[in-house]
Amino acid sequence: MSDASAFVAGYSGEVHNVGSPRFLTGASKCESSSSVLAASRRSHAPRERRPNVVIPPMGARTASTSPLSATSADAVEPPSSLALYDLAVSNFGARVRLVIYLLEIEHLVQMRTPTELGGTKSEAYLALNPQGKVPMLVVERPGQDALPLAESEIIVQYLLDVFPDTGPKSLRIANVHTPELRALARSATRVQDVYLGNLQGSLYKAMDAETRATSIRSLMAQLDLLEILLCRCAKLVGSDSAQDVVFFGGRQICTADCALFPSFVFFEFMLPLFSLDPFQGRRPRLEAWWRALLREGAFEKVRAQIRTELDGWQAKGRWANLGILDQIRDHPQLFKA
Amino acid sequence: MSDASAFVAGYSGEVHNVGSPRFLTGASKCESSSSVLAASRRSHAPRERRPNVVIPPMGARTASTSPLSATSADAVEPPSSLALYDLAVSNFGARVRLVIYLLEIEHLVQMRTPTELGGTKSEAYLALNPQGKVPMLVVERPGQDALPLAESEIIVQYLLDVFPDTGPKSLRIANVHTPELRALARSATRVQDVYLGNLQGSLYKAMDAETRATSIRSLMAQLDLLEILLCRCAKLVGSDSAQDVVFFGGRQICTADCALFPSFVFFEFMLPLFSLDPFQGRRPRLEAWWRALLREGAFEKVRAQIRTELDGWQAKGRWANLGILDQIRDHPQLFKA
C-alpha cells in the first residue's frame, strides 16, 4: 500500500471537508507553503487593518550542548500578520472567534474563508493544512516563511501566547488558581477535543440509525462526565449549591469554557429533535454554567453567529433531507429518550 | 434512550477496557470517589516512599465580582500523595512514566495497576474515571477529596505544574524558545492525542481487513504530517540538513517528543509485519528525531519496558491468533506496501 495515497482522518470532529485529499509529503514539499500563500495574498486584499510591526526573525538560536537543558523562552513579539480561515457554522472556528473577541484583537486578525484558496480540498489549502480542516491560522513574520497552524486549541493557545498582556487574565489556564483546577480545566478541554467534537456530527450528519443512536448515547455520557468535572471544580472552590455558578477553571471563565461553549449551541438547537436536552434536569451544574456564559457578550455574539447558520440548515430542511426525522420515526426503540 | 445507560467512547486511543461500563452521573454520585479510594488504600500498602508534606487546602478562594478578570494562580505546593494507575504495555501510560523519569520523581509517585481496584471496568475504577481507561493519577491533599485525573497529557501537565522546579526546564512547552515553536510542539502533541493514538490499534487489535488497511494508510499519512511539522521546526531553528537533529520544540526535547515516543516503539515493532516502517527512507527528519531520542536514558528505559510487553504478545502468537497474518496473506492488494 502506498502510505501517501490517501489521507483518511482517524477523527472527524474538526473535519468540514475531508474526502481523500492528496497528501503532501517529504521535506521538499514542506517548503511550498510560503509561495502558495503568497499567491493567495496577491489576489485577496486584506479585509482588516493590518499591524505594521516589523519584528526581527526569531527562533534561529545556537543549539545548546544537551537536548534536555535549562533554557527558557524568548520574549514574545506579536507576528506581523495573522489570517484566520474559518466558516461561520464551525464550532471549532467559533471557539477561536470567541477568544479573539475576548482578547479584543479582531482588528489584528484577517478573517478569511477556505474558498479564497479553492476550498479545504484544494491543493493550495492542503499544502498549508494537510488535514484539510477549518479553522486554520496563517502566521507571518518578516524574514520567515508563513506558518500555518491547524486545530482550534493550538490556535487559541498561540493567540494567548503572542498577546500575553491582552484580555482577561483569567482566560489563561496558567492563571487558574490551583494546579487541581488547572488540571480540571484541561480535562474539560480534552473532553471537547477528543470525545465530544467527534460525536457532535451524530446530531446533523448522514449516518445509519444505529450508529447515530449509539453516538448520541455516548454524547450524553460525555455530558454526564462534564457534570462530574464541574462537581469536582465546585468542591475545590467550596461551592455547595448546584445553583451556584462554577466554571471549568473555578470561579472564573477560562479557555476550557470557550472550548465547550460553541458545541453547546449545537446541543441546545439539535438535541430537542431527539427529545433530549443538554441538561435533562439532572446536570444542574452544567445548566448553571451555560446560563452564566450566556450573560457574557462575547459568548452571546458567537451563539448568534452559529444560530444564524443553523437556522439556515433548518430552513432548508436539513434533518428531513438527510432522513434523520425518518430514522427517529422509524426506530422509536433506538431513539427512546 | 436513557442517556446514562451505556458509555461508548467516541475515541479508542487510550482505551484498554471499555466495554459498556456503568456510568456514574449526577452531583450526589460525584462525591463518592474519596471513599472508594480510601477503601482501596486500606488494603494496599504504598509500594514507594511517600512524601509527608502537610499542605493546607488550596482553591477555596473568595469569588471575585466578574467571571472574567485579572487574577492569577496561587503558588504551587506538591500534593501529599500521588498514585498512578497504569499498565506496562500502555503507550499512554509510558508517556507519563517517561516524564516521571525525566523529572526524577519516581519516589514521589506510587505505581499501581487497575487490578488493585478490580480492573478498569470495575465500579470502583469507573467511579474515579468514568472513561474506564489507563493511565489515571489520583491526587491527594490534606483536607480535600482525592482527585482522579485521567488522560496522559492532563497527567503530564499536572506533574509539570506541581513540580515546577524539577527536571530539565526545556521539557516544558512554555520554555520552548518562540511562540511558533511552541505552537508546533502543541500541534505534534495533538497529532498523537487526536489522530495517531486512535489509529495505532490497527496494528494489533481485532478488526476486518479493510478497516485495518484504511487505518494503517491513515496512520502513515499522520507520520507524513509529523515529518512536515519537523520540517517547519527545522526552518524556524535554521537547520538546513535533514540529518541534523531537530525535535518538535526545536533544538531541545519537550513533552511533545515524550507524547509521541511510546507510539513509535509500537510502530518500529509492528509496521514491519505489514512490510512498512515508520521512516521508509522518506521521513528523514523523523528518523533523525527517533535516533536522537534513543540516545537518552529515560527514553531507552521506557522503550525497553514496552518492548518486553510486546515481545510477550509476539511469543503468545498475538498476530496469528487474531488472524492478522491471515488478513495480510489473503488481501495482498489491501496490504500492498
Automatic annotation (TrEMBL), chains A, B:
Q: Where is the composition biased (Low complexity)?
A: 31-40, 60-72
Q: Which UniProt keywords apply?
A: Transferase
Specify the superkingdom: Eukaryota
Q: Where is this region: Disordered?
A: 31-72
Where are the membrane-spanning stretches?
none
InterPro entries documented for this protein: Glutathione-S-Trfase_C-like, Glutathione-S-Trfase_C_sf, Glutathione_S-Trfase_N, GST_Omega/HSP26, Thioredoxin-like_sf
User: What are the GST N-terminal domain coordinates in residue numbering?
Assistant: 80-167
Asked if the Swiss-Prot or TrEMBL record annotates the protein with the keyword ATP-binding, the reply is no
Task: Give GO cellular component annotations, separated by semicolons.
Answer: cytoplasm
What one GO molecular function would you report for this record?
A: transferase activity
The GST C-terminal domain covers which part of the protein? 178-310
- Listed name of the protein: Glutathione S-transferase DHAR1, mitochondrial
Which species expresses this protein natively?
Porphyridium purpureum
